[in-house]
Amino acid sequence: MTSANNINNLAEKIEKMLDNTDAVLGPDSDVAISSRVRIARNISEYPFPVKLNAEGGKKVVEAVNNAVKSGGYDFIDFSSLSPLETGALTEKRVISLDFMKNPGEKELIADVENGLYVMVNEEDHLRIQCIKPGFSIDAAYEQANKFDNLADENLVYAFDENFGYLTQCPTNLGTGMRVSVMLHLPALTLNRQLQNIAADLSKLGLTIRGFYGEGTEVGGDLYQVSNNITLGISEEQTLEKLKSVAGKIIELERTARSELYKNSKDYITDRIKRAYGTIKNAYMISSAEFLSLYSTIRLGITYGIIKDIDYKPLDTLLVSVMPANLMLHFGQEDNINRDILRAKYIQGII
Q: Cβ contacts of residue 237 below 8 Å, gap of 6+?
């Protein structure tokens, strides 16, 4: 039987994870929104999650909990969350769509203050990920690696001398590590340089994707730059490559912004002021329209054309006006008048 104290503690943990009230800015925040390191690991004595039955899933959860219980992490029984809460966590990129939809035994382990979220029994037994604001790859790796080392001390990972860490998907063999940086690239989008950049990235074993990663569309001129290769390369090499390439893209975007403003000042100023007028006064705003307005207004803040707000409240909205988070804020389960509520919520922030 669950005690009232346990229920209250769980509610507090969930509320803390879903808090969207204040975005934190990190290094190079004019271009870099966030950095993420994700590590896939499996326990050698259990089948991959796709082959696990309910009893096996429970044993994996128990083994992981025992292995990292000294780390001071929060343990969230995923079955206790509502569909709206799980949807909101997906929009925050705390969990994956696969994890949300998977009906098996699963758990979320969190250290919200340090941006660490671990999915137990997603595609792999452990999906360790840390998300940090701005261009902060090393800081994200530090927290993810800390959890990985603690688990490794008390679990036997599935590992092969030739293939490295064994994962359910062959594309993650080797380090099992994916590193990504979320970048706001409106100028490189407008001058159509991104196609050439994407081609160059593929030659380096890197890729550029949409807002929510593989298979998703670009929204708000937000792109994820990440590694494609995990086999035959070390974690350190992956980190250094991402830092170097993402750093160069950041500088290219800054140069493109300067040239864009120099060559098209009147057009850009008009576009930014129209976007700001719309977001401040519109009666209805869809999530797709918000992303478009977000990108233009964020660029306007960079140019100093918009001075009433800075990046922080705007980046807070990037999550809080997405459908599940918006409905959770207003305490509504259905989508009635969602675009009206979104406009109302945005205007209360900016």
A: none
| Alpha helical stretches, state H, the chain | 4-17, 54-68, 83-91, 97-101, 137-154, 186-190, 194-203, 235-263, 265-281, 287-303, 311-320, 323-330, 338-349
Distance CA 22, CA 316 (A): 6
> What's the number of CA atoms in the CB half-sphere (13 Å) around residue 34?
21
Q: Which DSSP letter does residue 319 get?
A: H
- CB-neighbour burial class of residue 266 (10 A; exposed 0-12, middle 13-18, buried 19+): exposed
End-to-end CA distance of the chain: 45
pLDDT at 6: 40
Token couple for 251:
């500088």
Q: CA 15, CA 234: separation in Å to the nearest integer?
A: 37
Q: What angle, 0 to 180 degrees and rounded to 10, lies between the N-to-C axes of helices 287-303 and 311-320?
A: 170
Does the reported pTM lie above 0.85? yes
Considering only the C-alpha atoms of the chain, give the largest distance between any 2 of them, rounded to a whole number of Å: 68
Three-class SS of residue 101?
helix
3-class SS letters over 22-70: CCCCCCCCCCEEEEEEEEEECECCCCCHHHCCHHHHHHHHHHHHHHHHH
Q: Would you say residue 325 has pLDDT above 90?
A: yes
Q: What is the pLDDT of residue 9?
A: 61
If pLDDT is split at 50, 70 and 90, which confidence band does 77 have?
confident
Hey, what's the torsion of the CAs at 187, 193, 194, 196, to 10 degrees? Answer: -170
Instruction: Indicate the pLDDT class of residue 8, thresholds 50, 70 and 90.
Output: very low
How far is the C-alpha of 86 from the C-alpha of 67, rounded, in Å?
25
Q: Are strands 177-184 and 126-133 parallel, antiparallel or unpaired?
A: unpaired
Residue with tokens 């708000």: 220
